């Protein structure tokens, strides 16, 4: 199937809301339809991403919020140039597990200005066609994480996640959709697929 343009669809929310699950499901469904699709995630596996993953596993240590912000921003700059823009130019659907709303919410929860973070990112990163913000009570997210992984990182403390989710909930815009992430994975996937199908017009292309 050939698309007339590329589409950028991002999956956002605090840890454990089910973003990765939905991103995978959507990729599978798109492939079934023969849609050209790439699934990406941030932080990436590049040099900045590796630096970031070290503080995710070992704790922030002496890294300041501004430094942390600059690492996530540099990682994204690289992702935009190397992966996101090329895929969009090839008229692919880009499914992205975390983007700059995560930076605005997580680094915003450290005391930096979420609006300024969004503005600075939008200077080099394309605004997505759809941004899904998954909302699940943080206590429930931590339970999900506890059941699926051994222990959680320093980024996943309840108090912090409550602040992060409050910032996510404050985002509004024509492309922003809040998703009730408490429903079952299949129900959520069905809702998202309906909307994406309509947006891209898959039925008309087939
Ligand atoms: P995230 O990418 O947002 O951190 P994941 O997709 O990795 O979240 O999901 C975290 C855990 O919660 C996994 O064990 C996953 O199987 C489970 N999970 C995902 N979606 C749901 C859902 N809708 N209801 C219950 N559990 C879910
Ligand atoms: P990720 O590996 O997606 O975690 P999870 O699978 O648990 O959702 O992301 C790693 C962590 O990085 C996550 O706690 C959120 C954080 N993060 C930021 O603080 N700022 C950012 O800009 C991004 C993209 C992620």
Defining traits:
five-stranded parallel beta sheet; globular; binds adenosine-5'-diphosphate; 9 helices; binds thymidine-5'-diphosphate; 206 residues
Polypeptide structure, described:
The structure is a single chain. The protein has helices at 19-33, 47-58, 65-89, 100-106, 114-122, 138-148, 158-170, 185-200, 202-205; strands at 7-13, 37-41, 93-97, 130-135, 176-180. The chain is of the alpha/beta class. The protein has a single domain (7-205), classed as Rossmann fold, CATH 3.40.50.300. The protein has a 5-stranded parallel sheet, with helices on both faces. The protein is globular. The protein starts with 6 loop residues before the first strand and ends with a helix. The structure holds adenosine-5'-diphosphate and thymidine-5'-diphosphate (TYD). Thymidine-5'-diphosphate binds at residues 15, 20, 42-43, 56, 72, 98, 102-103, 106-107, 155. Adenosine-5'-diphosphate binds at residues 13, 15-21, 144, 148, 181, 184-185, 188.
């Amino acid at each position: 199937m050939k698309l007339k343009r590329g589409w950028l669809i991002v999956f956002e929310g605090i840890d454990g809301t089910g973003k990765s699950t939905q991103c995978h499901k959507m990729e599978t469904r798109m492939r079934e339809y023969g849609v050209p699709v790439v699934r990406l995630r941030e932080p990436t596996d590049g040099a900045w991403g590796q630096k970031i993953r070290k503080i995710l596993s070992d704790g922030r240590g002496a890294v300041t919020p501004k430094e942390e912000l600059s690492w996530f921003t540099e990682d994204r700059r690289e992702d935009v140039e190397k992966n996101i823009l090329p895929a969009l130019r090839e008229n692919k659907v880009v499914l992205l597990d975390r983007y700059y709303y995560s930076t605005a919410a997580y680094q915003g929860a450290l005391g930096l200005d979420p609006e300024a973070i969004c503005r600075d990112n939008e200077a080099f990163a394309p605004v997505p066609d759809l941004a899904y913000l998954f909302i699940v009570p943080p206590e429930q997210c931590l339970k999900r994480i506890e059941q699926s992984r051994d222990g959680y990182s320093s980024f996943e403390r309840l108090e912090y996640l409550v602040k992060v989710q409050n910032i996510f909930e404050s985002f509004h815009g024509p492309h922003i959709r809040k998703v009730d992430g408490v429903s079952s994975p299949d129900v959520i996937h069905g809702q998202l697929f309906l909307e994406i199908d309509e947006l891209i017009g898959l039925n008309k292309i087939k």
